[in-house]
Amino acid sequence: MKFSSSLLALLAASLAEGHYIFSHLIVNGKAVGGEYTYIRKNSNTYMPSFTDEIVNSPDLRCNKGARPGGSTQTYSVNAGDKIGFKLDYNEFIEHPGPGFVYMSKAPGAVSTYDGSGDWFKVYETGLCNANSPGQDGSWCSWQKDRLEFTIPKTVPPGEYLVRVEHIGLHEAFKGRAQFYMECAQLKISGSGGGNPSPLVKIPGIYSANDPGIKFDKWNNPKPNSYVMPGPKVWSG
Q1: What is the mean pLDDT of residues 117-145?
Q2: pLDDT more than 90, % of the chain
């Protein structure tokens, strides 16, 4: 059976609809580098990972196939800079769910670091309408093309993996929350002085049965609250 090129393009667009990948680094509102210049490239492109295959896997750190030692460069920034992770393909976040940023200080060069050390959460975005988690537009990240955070000014200087993540909850009720995550390699300068906490390991931040992971947005009556998964945010 033969398919026309236009039909194949239509099928590809249909498969990609709603999926996304954080492949562009933004610093203080400006794009730096190109696709994957400073972000480790994964092997499943814009496709998500699902709950049972990812929450207990080392791939939860930076995504499938995103390993140290590749061509990813390390970008120098300052504590206090605003960092953004922009979606590729001119996509927007069109799944309901929370977003997060975690950081892990490498013991040496971040280019060779596998992320097996300690992590801490520096940002999370959840509901803008706290009483309606079942409504897609209630999520603050809905229809955004990026997630952004400010590096705490007291973060200890050094080289870091900086992990962005969004969790799509539309299929979470059947154990298929969709995980989208990438890691940037950053060298952070500053005066330091902070003590990030709590420190956690990845995997280990989530369980498949966490209420914020196994969440039923379709329940009747509609849910009226949501419990953020993972550790508390360290603000510096």
Answers
A1: 96
A2: 86
Mean pLDDT check: name the lowest of 15-24, 29-38, 113-122, 169-178.
15-24
CATH classification (class only), 41-236: mainly beta
Here the tokens at position 143 are 């229809």
DSSP H/E element including 54 = helix 51-54
Nearby residues of 132 by Cβ (< 8 Å), 6 or more positions away: 138, 222, 224
Greater confidence (221 vs 65) lies with 65
Question: DSSP letter string over 68-106?
Answer: TTSS---EEEETT-EEEEEESTT----S---EEEEEEE-
Is 99 exposed, middle or buried, given 0-12, 13-18 or 19+ CB atoms closer than 10 A?
A: buried
Coil, helix or strand at residue 111: helix
